[in-house]
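Take just one protein record:
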Amino acid sequence: MPAEIQHFYHQPSGTLSYVVSDAAAAAVIDPVLGFSVVSGKIDSGPADAILDYLGDHGLALQWILETHAHADHLTAAQYIKSRLGGTVAIGHGIVSVQEHFGKLFNLKAPFAADGHQFDHLFADNEEFRIGEFQCRVMATPGHTSDSVSYRVEDAVFVGDSLFMPDFGTARCDFPGGDANQLFDSIQRLLALPDETRLFMCHDYPPESRELRFEISVAEQKEKNIHVGGDAGKQQYVAIREQRDANLSLPALILPSIQVNICAGQLPQAEDNDISYIRIPLDRL
């Protein structure tokens, strides 16, 4: 019996989250908390939809998996863990991301750039299980230095490395990003069997088509506007770097990164019982 895969779409950030399960056990991949940068209010609605699904299907939560420290939404990892348990995991590259942004935000102890905020740090090619399914971690850096993809049978959850063919690939201008590295990571994904199903972390569908979240390796190789066909590394890097030079930063990059490098733990409340997000001035 193949793994059951249910997607959840957060339209404001264009983010796709997933529940992957067998008959009894499940993993959640890239869960979202809504957040208003205007009011500072957190919206648990996107995560509650996932909790409802897990409860309705009687699934025991084993893993809460992050493909990387996202820059466009707050992770719901701790919110979900506080209600259903589960092991919060990310790639070992998160340590270098924490080193950079811990300095930017001037984070003090108990923060440390050692990954301890997560329950588990994955190494490349590490294997783990979701219920009866054997899974493998694929390091796919380039968008960020901590990016990983998760392979569950014939399905691979690719994070931000690839988008649908009409949108191409992820930006590489964040700290630790590297277009050369991303090209190599994408080639690793495209070297999988043609029938392998790739599940996106984002889709930004134009009016001419509906939301898509699943695509075959074969279609990506044929149609992706950045890496499809005979596109080589030199051509790709030139396209990617030119495009990145004109991109605006994500609207939620500062609150998102600040929370996500801490595995979704919100900043500790101060002596007035209020938590605050730090906004460094004139640094990004």
Summary: The chain has one domain: 4-260. The helical segments are 45-56, 77-84, 94-104, 179-190, 217-223, 233-244, 253-260.
